[in-house]
Amino acid sequence: MPSASDVVASPRTLDQAAAFLASAYAESRSVQIGKDLLTDGLDRVLEHEAGDLTCTVEAGVRLSQLRETLAARGQRLSLDPPGNPTVGACLAANLSGPLRHRFGAPRDLVLGVTLVLADGTVANAGGKVVKNVAGYDLGKLVCGSRGTLALIVRVSLRLHPLPQAARTVVVETDDSAADTASLLSSPLQPSALDILHPGRVALLFEGSAAAVDDQIRRTRALVGGEEAHPRVWDEVRERQLAALGRVRFDPGRLGETLARIDEAIARPAAGVAYVPAETASDLADAVRALNERIRARFDPTSVFVGRAW
Amino acid sequence: MALDDAVARELRVLLGDRFVLTEPEQLRVYDCDGLTGWRAQPAIVVLPGSTEEVQAVLRLCHRHAIPFVARGAGTGLSGGALPVADGVVVSLARLNRILEVDLASQRVVVEPGVANLDVTRAVESEGWFYAPDPSSQQVCTIGGNVAENSGGAHCLKNGFTVNHVTGLTVVLPDGELVELGGKALDPDGYDLLGAFVGSEGTLGIVTRITLRVLRRPEAVTTLLAAFRTGDEAGSAVSSVIGAGIVPAAIEMMDALTIQAAEAAYHPSYPAGAEAVLLVELDGIAAQVAEDEVAVEEICRGCGTFEIRIAKDEAERALLWKGRKGAFAAMGRVSPDYYVQDGVVPRTRLPEVLRRIADLGDQYGLRVANVFHAGDGNLHPLVLYDAERGEAERAKELAEEILTACLDAGGSLTGEHGVGVDKACAMPKMFSEHDLEAFKRLRRAFDPDGRANPGKVLPTPRLCGEIPGPYRMHPLERIGIAERL
């Protein structure tokens, strides 16, 4: 199949995106999203319904731009991956940051999507309301798809109010697993809890000033630690971004997992650690085959180039 | 196609005689779920006792091209577990063990036949709980919750079943086994857990489920506010959300629901209330205390004439009793009712409620409203008397209510599922292309269409050749609006 690297398309509308893929399909051209097909031009926030705590955006909107728009009305998308990716990339690459601890991954925040399939068909799934079980949840399905299933064009998202106060505690420790276990089994409700392995546990508390104050006091009584500058979260994100590999583990096996790793950013409640060296995918063969069957149904002629796992 | 005796014999060899039901009086028990208006008699009901037996049953169905329907407790309200006539019903009732409680990982591993509330019961002594709490939680099963992506009153803050399932053992329609996810989150590849949860039994049968459990919040406050109009209660809901407070739950009941609840459970709701709001706050004690004051002030500002605050578990249970049992209480005010599950954006609630009242007047039928106000999930109960021939009119009214929800940018169903009940309404929310994309996913799991056929997606057999009028999908509408 001839590569489309000499044809760069940057659609500004859903129709243009659909037309590009329809012609690629008709001409048997392959398309690598992010290289042959860019979403930079699809960068509008289409709707922000503050009263509903929802918004609908085009997939090319960058998180920094969205953050600014939402903050004007006291809200945010509780997703803070490293860098400044587009919303579409957050879904496609399943990106999340420290806030994953409390607010989840993109799949937990997506309410609906508009996709363009490999043959140019436009398909919607989900909706823009926070609660909806009508039809299959293709908005979740495309999370982690890395451009191999469909082009994500529009996304409706669940939002949260901006917290009144946010403060950080860092615990220097020789036994981050034990400290983490005490924290996770306490009634404390951090918005983020990351381990900067080796040696430190970082916690973010959000809420009213009094409640944050109270949680910080109790954290220090439980595991020690000092209030810290929020720049520690930049360090977390930088190290996460620089990591080439990812280790998944049963959250209860945190201690033995960390014992095997020299250096990592670990997100213990999720059971995910970002490590410097490359790691192999842990996807079982049967699941891989099922992924492949789905890919083949959505893109039977392999228009999309890439690897999702 | 009637199943021949040879199939039943084969199943008996696989499962043992006791667990293969073929007598008409045995089969009748399974002929409907909670949506009792739809009934069909299966040819055979099987009760496998292990993952391997479920695999064996589905392999056999695969070999003989027999359609099958998985079934939990049968409490579903959309006919998702309605049998296929002459097909096989796979009851998961025997797979009812809690396999592992791993609180160090904040996970519990269960079989699909475990009742929702039993997950919380298994961990509550240690101070943990399982968050999704559908009203039927005492009996409905986790397997059914996975199929329907069940919600409940408290999903406003904590999310739905899909946000709490971290792993699934799935038997695919050909009998093959796949393990999706596990105790760790973020597996590579497509989010198959996200696609499977809520797929209403059309992609396979789960035999093992890994659930995330949460630490019981240290403080809980339940507040009941009574209002003289629904609009006042509605504006209180908007103001609470607008103030940046995320309650664990906000529920609303209207006068008719209050009347029914009083007749059935005597929760002694304030007299003269046209609408009652239940607001539950939970979390860090200092936060809950502040939010409680704020919510109280907001409710007073919006015109509440009485506020009650539950001081302990017993008082809380009483406040909730009228709400959790509201559907069942309807029997006190009407012989029959038809419940809807539409969703509207929260900000559109007041206008949609007025529209529902107008429609009720127009059709000459009463509509009781009891719903999850925090997330805009309505449960209008259309009251009718089948003996007076009102059933058809009630169904028409219910459809008009759904249309009103869709017109407001909402959804056909918030938590009850599409099932057979709303399959024919799907073209009102989704275009042909959208539905075709759904079919691609379904075929990837079930190329022969034998897993719960006739559910979720409209079929010509069920709906006739002409689909209902398509209304622009909310996302699509935004796209059109920007071009004008």
Description:
The complex is a heterodimer of chains A (309) and B (484). By secondary structure, chain A is α+β, with helices and mostly antiparallel strands. Chain A starts with 13 loop residues before the first helix and ends in an 11-residue tail after the last helix. Chain A has a seven-stranded antiparallel sheet with strand order 11-8-10-9-13-14-12, sandwiched between helices. Chain A has a five-stranded antiparallel sheet with strand order 1-2-6-4-5. Chain A is built from eleven helices and 14 strands. Helix content of chain A is 31%, strand content 23%. In chain A, a hairpin with a 4-residue loop joins strand 1 and strand 2 (54-58). Chain B is of the alpha+beta class. Chain B folds into four domains: 5-91, Uridine Diphospho-n-acetylenolpyruvylglucosamine Reductase, domain 2 (2-Layer Sandwich); 98-215, 2-Layer Sandwich (Uridine Diphospho-n-acetylenolpyruvylglucosamine Reductase, domain 3); 219-330, Alpha-Beta Plaits (2-Layer Sandwich), CATH 3.30.70.2190; 334-483, Alpha-Beta Plaits (2-Layer Sandwich), CATH 3.30.70. In chain B, the strands form four sheets. A seven-stranded antiparallel sheet of chain B has the order 15-12-14-13-17-18-16, with helices on both faces. A five-stranded antiparallel sheet of chain B has the order 5-6-10-8-9. In chain B, strands 1-2-4-3 form a four-stranded mixed sheet. In chain B, a hairpin with a 4-residue loop joins strand 5 (98-102) and strand 6. In chain B, helix 8 runs antiparallel to helix 10 and helix 13 (349-363) packs antiparallel against helix 14 (391-407). Chain B is globular and about 70 Å long. The interface between A and B is large, with 94 and 99 residues.
